[in-house]
């Protein structure tokens, strides 16, 4: 005689669904400010390093802007210092969280120019940078920033 095996949903606290929901709960407790800080430092690092490489060999940088990058409507002798200054200033502002949204917007402009005119095939990397910058533009620098301190200082009652 064959026995029928019936299975009932596992209601133990160690079920797969329960474990999954517990992990989601842990992830949801990560403060947004921690995510914003990590995003700020990551994207600032990218643009700081890019500017440093331009400054390390300015003659090569000028040649690249003249021969390879060729940004439309802006002569290379203007585009090279403009891009370098934007990367430097934007990276510093974003890293320290001061006027973060302005820095993020400037760096988004750099990303757009790079994507459209310089390296269109590198869209995945540019999308990653743009995603972090859009987070900062939309939500600001977070609690671990000079923007936050300035807001608290200037809005005291």
Task: Describe the structure concisely for a colleague.
The protein is an all-alpha fold and 157 residues long. The chain has helices at 16-28, 32-56, 58-69, 76-96, 100-118, 123-139, 146-154.
Shape: globular
Radius of gyration: 23 Å
Averaged pLDDT: 92
Oligomeric category: single chain
Spatial gap, N to C terminus: 82 Å
* Count of individual helical segments: 7
Largest sheet: none
Low-confidence stretches: none
- What structural category arises from helix and sheet content? mainly alpha
Number of strands: 0
Q: Determine the fraction of residues in helical runs and give it as a percent range.
A: over 70%
The succession of helices and strands, N to C, reads HHHHHHH
Which properties best describe this structure?
single chain; mainly alpha; 74% helix; 157 residues; globular
If you had to describe this structure to a student in words, what would you say it looks like?
By secondary structure, the chain is mainly α. Helix content is 74%, strand content 0%. The protein has seven helices and no strands. The radius of gyration is 23 Å and the shape is globular. The mean pLDDT is 92.
What is the strand and helix layout of this fold?
Layout: H1 16-28, H2 32-56, H3 58-69, H4 76-96, H5 100-118, H6 123-139, H7 146-154
């Amino acid at each position: 005689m064959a026995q029928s095996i019936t299975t009932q949903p596992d209601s133990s606290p160690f079920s797969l669904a329960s474990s999954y929901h517990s992990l989601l709960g842990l992830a949801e407790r990560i403060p947004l400010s921690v995510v914003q800080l990590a995003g700020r430092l990551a994207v600032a690092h990218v643009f700081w390093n890019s500017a440093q490489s331009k400054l390390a060999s300015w003659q090569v940088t000028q040649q690249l802007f003249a021969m390879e990058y060729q940004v439309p409507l802006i002569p290379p002798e203007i585009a090279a210092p403009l891009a370098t200054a934007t990367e430097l200033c934007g990276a510093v502002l974003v890293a320290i969280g001061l006027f973060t949204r302005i820095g993020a917007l400037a760096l988004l402009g750099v990303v757009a120019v790079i994507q459209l005119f310089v390296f269109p095939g590198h869209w995945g990397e540019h999308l990653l940078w743009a995603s972090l910058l859009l987070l900062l533009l939309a939500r600001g620098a977070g609690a671990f920033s000079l923007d936050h301190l300035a807001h608290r200082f200037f809005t005291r009652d």
